[in-house]
Amino acid sequence: MNNPHEMKLIANIGTDDVKQEPIRAGFGRGLLEAGKKDTRVVALCADLTQSTQISKFAEAFPERFVEIGVAEQNLVTVASGMAAMGKIPFTSSYAAFSPGRNWEQIRTTIALNDRPVKIIGSHAGISVGPDGATHQMLEDIALMRALPNMIVLAPGDSTEAAKATLAIAQIDKPVYMRLAREKTPIFTTNDTPFEVGKAYTMWGGNDITLIGTGTMTYQCLLAAKQLQGQGISAEVVHVPTIKPLDVQTILASVQKTRNVVTAEEAQINGGLGGAIAELLSEQLPSKMKRIGMRDQFGESGTPNELLEAFGLTGRHISEAARQLVQ
Amino acid sequence: MMQLTPSQLALKANEIRQDLIKMLEQAGSGHSAGPLGLADIFTALYFNILKHDPKNPDWDERDILILSNGHCTPIRYVTMAHAGYLPKEELSTLRQYGSRLQGHPERTRLSGLETTSGPLGSGLSQAAGMTYALTMDQQRHRWVYCIVSDGEHDEGNFWEGVMFAAKYNLSNLIVIVDRNNIQIDGPTEEIMPLEDLHAKWEAFGWHVQEIDGHNIDSIIDACSMARAIENRPSVIIAHTIPGKGVNFMEYNYLWHGTPPGKQDIPGAPPKSIQAKEALNALRTLGGKIRSEHE
């Protein structure tokens, strides 16, 4: 059973007709829904209302939307103040600026202060494309994962992002959620399970565990299909919650395979790769390769050019897996 | 809450200063100049101006007090102890392991602090966010007071908050600037000039008052005036003397009453050395406690 039934994924993974949508669009829908369900939900944006998709909420609930201007430090500190008065604030900007520019404010006034602000970093990863290295946030996972009290999410597609947005609105803790700009395949469905703090085995196998987060989980699924043709049985574990890690699910898979490839559109230092390496080196040392940015910045190009150039495709994952297993 | 008269308040401020010095000496480290300079303002706030209940720090009708310059938290701890938020005996635990009285204030450790601060420039934005939320909820009878230092005007985040509060006409927000003219490396006008501070605030759309930050009547009156202002936030620039109330400290501060950078004191050592020595004396209670930033 390669595509576990209970995951309710789409049936046509890897075909050309898989529907695509930017992950950020799911956030926009989810926030609108969260706003309908709970009047305490408010949204704050730093002059990027359309592109971060917070605009849907802003149009529906103008009295609960706060335009901050190009001021990311103010964005999160005003949000901290609103949370103190019982609001559930969602802030949105590009990940390069929030948490890129305002990390100390997040640390002091949200994480240490333990205020349930939801920090949404859109346009994360190399697939931002032509904007180039300044706007391709690659260090956000490392930055936010290091903060006590902070929950860190990277949903795999827009459908999951909508569920994640609804879920975090009801969690009384600080949360960082990373989103991507480009259209990517929607491989989960409305029936696919999602819970903050859970990892999901989305493809069953015995020889190697492919662990993906965000946009790279779909690439892991493609790699698993490729490996199948080469006689290698890969298991895919999707990690939409990078912190806290679902240790149980990850260890259960690696116990079986003892070979691991991680995949993310972020720096592997401190990123998902770092997190999994930390876990396994303490609890279950295994053979491992990490796919992601290797202590380097991106550059301008089309998303596909860049993903190819920096080795962030299903083919690169399956190649790494083959090297490990053989 | 007990509300004291101005003459009672002046006596209370002196008691608070004495306990502050005892506390700092026991702790052996911490800031002294700024907290002493804020004693009158904190006394007036907790014993006259603020609507609050020490027995119910989370009372949902309370006024909010944010201390943005968190390093001045010793004066808040002592004033809160006098107001009944914590036992006075606990003051001796300042900065000790396990204490609720952290070196810089942490909301999650001690009820009534409202936020966690220390890193400068972020308190005003939080206070503005709180005021925004209260305004959304039609809680116009509640006030948010935010004490800021002059040195933290150097921060970009600070002015982001100033613009935000003005844009949204947050008239329930009252900022009190502790204008004591010093920051860690020297006089504010040498390190990063702030003047004309009054004109700057006004240009940003705020209602501005300037007062003697040691005159209890002025503090109370200025806050009344600020509450009466509609459609824009208010700032009270309170001129204070760092180390106020400890005569050797006040008089050691060579720049008291002398606009820094304008003239040299005849026969005195070069300006920068003079200023540094004076600052160090202020911060260390004349050498009795370890300087915070040595």
Explain what the structure shows.
The complex is a heterodimer of chains A (326) and B (294). Chain A is globular, with a radius of gyration of 19 Å. In chain A, helix 3 packs parallel to helix 4 and helix 7 packs across helix 11 (314-325). Chain A has helices spanning 23-37, 55-60, 72-84, 103-112, 140-145, 158-169, 216-229, 247-257, 272-283, 303-309, 314-325, and strands at 20-22, 41-45, 65-67, 88-94, 118-122, 151-153, 175-178, 183-185, 200-203, 208-212, 234-238, 241-243, 259-267, 287-293. With 326 residues, chain A is α/β, with parallel strands linked by helices. Chain A folds into two domains: 5-18 and 191-325, Rossmann fold (3-Layer(aba) Sandwich), CATH 3.40.50.920; 20-185, Thiamin diphosphate (ThDP)-binding fold, Pyr/PP domains (Rossmann fold, 3-Layer(aba) Sandwich), CATH 3.40.50. Chain A contains eleven helices and 14 strands. With 294 residues, chain B is of the alpha/beta class. Chain B has a single domain (6-283), classed as Thiamin diphosphate (ThDP)-binding fold, Pyr/PP domains (Rossmann fold). Chain B is 40% helix and 11% strand. Chain B has eleven helices and seven strands. In chain B, strand 2, helix 6 (156-167) and strand 3 (173-179) form a beta-alpha-beta unit. In chain B, helix 1 (6-27) packs across helix 3, helix 3 packs parallel to helix 4 (73-83) and helix 5 (123-136) runs parallel beside helix 6 (156-167). The longest helix of chain B is centred in the N-terminal third of the chain and has 22 residues, at 6-27. Chain B is globular. Classes of the chains: A alpha/beta (326), B alpha/beta (294). Chain A binds chain B through residues 42, 63-64, 66, 68-69, 71, 73-74, 77-87, 104-105, 108-109, 112-114, and chain B through 106-108, 114-119, 121-122, 125-134, 136-137, 156-157, 160-161, 163-164, 168.
